[in-house]
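EI: anyone free to look at a 537-residue chain?
SC: sure, send it
EI:
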Amino acid sequence: MKSNYADFVLKNAPRVITQIDRDPNSKTYGSCDRNFWHLKTRDFSSAILQQSGLVLALLYSNDFEGNVYYKNENIKEWAVATVYYWAKVQLKDGSFNEYYPHEHGFPPTAFSLFSACEIYKKLKLKDEMLVSKMAKTAHYLVEHIEENAFNQEMASIAALYSFYTIVKKEWVKEGCERKLKRILAMQKKEGWFPEYGGADIGYLSVTLDMLAAYYSMSGDEAVVEPINQIIGFIKYFVHPDATAGGEYGARNTTYCLPFGFQAAISWKNQDAAAIKQALYGAYDWHRNFYFMDSVDDRYFSHYLLHSFLRALEIEQAQEVEPAVLPCFENHYKYFEESGLISCTNENYHSIISLQKGGIIKVWKGKKEIMLDCGYRVDFGGGCVAAMNWLDPSYSIHVEKASVSVAGYMNRVTLKMPSPILHMGLRVISFLLGNKIIGFLKRKLIFVDQHCDIRFTRKIIWKEKQILIEDEFESDQEYRLIHATNMSLRHVASGKFFGKSDLLDRKNKDIPRAKKVIVKTELDIAAERATYQNEKLV
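SC: here you go
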């Protein structure tokens, strides 16, 4: 089966190479942060972007049709330069900065060590200084755990094992194994690993990518079943229009890394083959719109493009016959732990997130015809309340043909950067280092604050219709507005453009009231939703 790996890589490789300082006389030679070394809009180099060097190393070492970069010495020299620059910007404790100086961030430390080790091996480098720098970072990762973002913790495991293959030191292997044992015990029965409290498809594909990378290096059979379980979960959230993930996920991501699926195909995982066929199939099928074309330069330089290259590297000419994806056959599946529902009948496919207030997406054939993210209330001054917020306190009731979710809307104050805030952040980070990361996450991500507006959403599936009834009640008058698909939760790799952004939202004339009922009827055949608003108080 022909994939679009090579086409996608060759189309986007120039974007990544452009991010790298390729001037050997430059003080920042090898920096992969164009905003720093070229545009001068940042006063430090974000170390997580040093993963761009792995893209170069893989382009240099893999011979595939159209690869003009293969065995090009310039490409090799630039890849090597990225590793030396990585060593140059390492902090004293072995960690690195991503968003601000003195950050000591876990993601740039884990992901950049993985890429540095892989470049070192791929290009057959020999330098004790680099190995010493890698060891310092490995010590940091052994001593630190990321509690909330499991993709980052899994990246630390892959990074440590990659370093172990270089030095063969038992302390590295033992630290890696401790982390692996801990994280595997936290995999949900449904197959997913938590991302800030819920299941997220894009970040789960990163977790899968790093776990599969660990397996490809270690051959550890203990991770095969956890990998199969991840894929068995993700398959329900691959859509008929060849997209995956989105608004119903814990972190709203709309991309999906290919390496983990490609690795699983090697042991005849038919679900992985089906996902590959749907998301990474022949490129012509996606020519007008391929959902990962919308990923920004930062995440192409981060883990996206090197995942495509690593998948391309292990792709075989003859592969297993793909299974049929759930979105293409009648089914009903409720994932109680994640609050997600996947449902397909003869007329439509739908996905619902109950833990995010009843967000619903609907497809007719291969066309998305509805995205309903519920409602918001704008209090002014950047303060907004929303029902589409990941909230474990919601009351959920599930039946075969209907579901309901009830709770209080969450109030979020949208943050704006300013020179004063940036200056304060620099001073505090200089004094406290990574001790402020938890505080920043509570301000930007874990902003769980209920307001007094209670909502109940009921969704009813019919053969050719979907009915939604929303009821809102408060002691004060308020005015509802239809929520967009722009999440109020801060997610760095979120808000990439997708075709969902183009869907019409017509329900705008909702009166101010203390109690309102909104009824929505989606006619599948007509591909049209109609609304009725009822002011009760």
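EI: DSSP finds 15 helices and 14 strands in the chain.
SC: 👍
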